Every structure is written in C-alpha cells, then in structure tokens.
Amino acid sequence: MKVLRLDKADLERWFVNWAKTREVYGPLRQSSSDSKSISVNKSYTDWAILKDGKFPELGTGLPKSPIKKFFFPQPETLFTCSKRKGDPDAFVFKEPENRDNARKVLVGVRPCDARSVELNNLPFEKDPYFQANRAKTAIVGFTCRDRCQTCFCKEVGGSPVGTEGMDIAVTQLDDFYMAEVITEKGEELVQEGGGASEASGEEISRLKESKAQVESLFSSMSDPAQALEAMKAKDLFALYNAPFWSQLADSCINCGICTFLCPTCYCFDIQDEVVKGTIRRIRYYDSCMFPLFTLQASGHNPRGQKVQRVRNRFMHKFKYFPDRFGPFSCVGCGRCIRECPVNIDIREVLKDLLAVE
User: Fold this and answer.
1) What is the pTM of this model?
2) Contact predicate 181/187, CB 8 Å
3) In this structure, what are the phi and psi dihedrals at residue 331, rounded to the nearest 5 degrees?
4) In whole angstroms, what is the distance from residue 34 CA to residue 43 CA?
5) 173-to-117, 142, 205, 207, 210 alpha-carbon distances in Å
6) DSSP class per residue in 143-206
7) Residue 34 pLDDT greater than 50, yes or no
C-alpha cells in the first residue's frame, strides 16, 4: 500500500484536478428556513458539489444524508418509453437517454459510510444499476479524529479509522495529511491529482500511533465477534416472543426516517409513472416501517401491526442479514438515533436483544 504525505494545499489541488473530468462531492454546510412568517434558519451538513477546490467541512459527526444516495439514487429511472399515438416505439421500454453516467469522487467519507457500500454490495452483488453506480464512483475517505455522542461503529464490527470501502484513506496529523492509496481507483486518482511525496518511515509511525489513539477513544460495549456469535445463537422464536418489542413499538410512529437515513437500508419499490406522454419506470426508496410495504394483492398483510414492523427492522439488521451474509446490517453511524423523533436508540435495542434468555 502506498502512503503519501500531503499539505492542505495538495489536497485542494487534487480536488481541482479531479473536477476537470469528474463530479467531486463533499460535506458542506447547508441552510434552510421554514415558510412561516417568523423564519427559523437551520444549518446542517450534507453532500454537495465541491467547486473551485473548496475543502469539505469535516467537523465531528456526519452529513445528514448517507452516501447510499450516490449508489442507490432516490428515485432511479430504470427504463422509459413513449405512449404518444403514432409513435412506432410506443410502449417499448428502453434505457433512458439522459442516464447519469458522470464519474464521481466522494471526498470526506467517514469509515462508517464507506463500510456501508461494502455491506450493501452483498445483497446488490448482481444488481446492474448498483454495480454501474459503484464502478463510476470513487471514495476518498477521511478517518475520524473524535467521537460524536451517537456513533457506535466498533460495537457492530467497524472502526473509526477503518478503510473498508475506501479507494483512498486520508488521516489528518496536526497540520498535514497522510493518504493511504488502497485500490486501483485510488492510484488513478493520485495520478490525476498531481504530485505528492511518499511518506517517511517516521511519518508512517506517527500515522499508526494516531490511529491507535483514536481507536482507544471509541470504547466498545462488547466484542463485535462475540456479539455476532451470540446473536446467531439466539432462538428466533424466543426473540419473536420477547416482551420488549411491544414496549418499543408503543413509542415508534412508523415515520420511516430511520430507514431513509440509514446507510444500509435498501428496501425499494418499482412503479411506472406518466409525465407529458412519456412513461418512466422508477425505483425508489420504500420502508419496512410503512403499513403498505407488505400489503399483498389479496388484501392480506403479514406485518399489518406496528409491532411486527418494528420487530422486523431490528431482526433484519441483527439476525436475518447476519444469518445470510455474516456481518450486522448496521455500521453504527448513529443517524437513526440522532433523527428519531421519539428517541429510539438502536444501541439499547441491541443490548436488549443480546440480553434475551
């Protein structure tokens, strides 16, 4: 693995050079105001195009949206066709002419978001749309330096300094940066970005020391491997009958914000819609928390009750997904904790699941 030393000016030059042939995105401060007579300005960080080499805003915490929006757009047009009379190609579905094929670079991706791409690749391994978006997108991650109140990446098998899913991993050391070039995509980005000096042995040692210090800040409530094995060993029916599901469901309002902002939630629906004589078939986010999600044409709904939907969400992340693929379907980003209107904490749910006898 190649390790480079860069100053902030070097990184800014990389961003400028990448933007000549790619779309470069990073976390930037956004603002919004409500429509009432007394305007209340709210600011938050979210993904936006970095223009003129603008440096991403990398404070403690995460952008409001996960990076799944770049791999699993909302919505995503799969096919289009005409329904106009006299058109010889009417009702013949074709690939959309205006499909977004631009190459992208995501800068400032935290380890939890980068890891989510690898987890989503497990169920979407043969999905042509996800794979096409992944092929044209490069990830330049920035490892964490501090811990926010809602993150818990280590508890679910991640790391604040992990590089899984990244093409280049950048770590800040005082007033300069260290870049670990991990993949061929990363090598290509370095070539496009311009010259950068190889890190010295002393600087690489400092990088390792810095990572070790950050790891120590992220104390884990349990060993991830033990937690996985304990969850896999659980009796599924005992989990189904656990009384805390009803208590948890009492407060949940099934708004779905936890699933829409979750990096590893990937449920979707497909519909056809008509706009000005053109039919487009779109794939868009859906949520297992919504009553209509499992409604069948017969009228039967196997998860018609709220408690069933709440149980399914957590069982999928901590039981069904691990049984099928291995890891938890959670990266510990904490967005669901931060944005839940009724303060449901997924960390407490995991503790309860592990405590069930």
Assistant:
1) 0.91
2) yes
3) -110, 0
4) 12
5) 26, 12, 11, 7, 8
6) --SS--TT--GGGGT--TT--TT-SEEEEEETTEEEEEE-SHHHHHHHHHH---EEPPHHHHHH
7) no
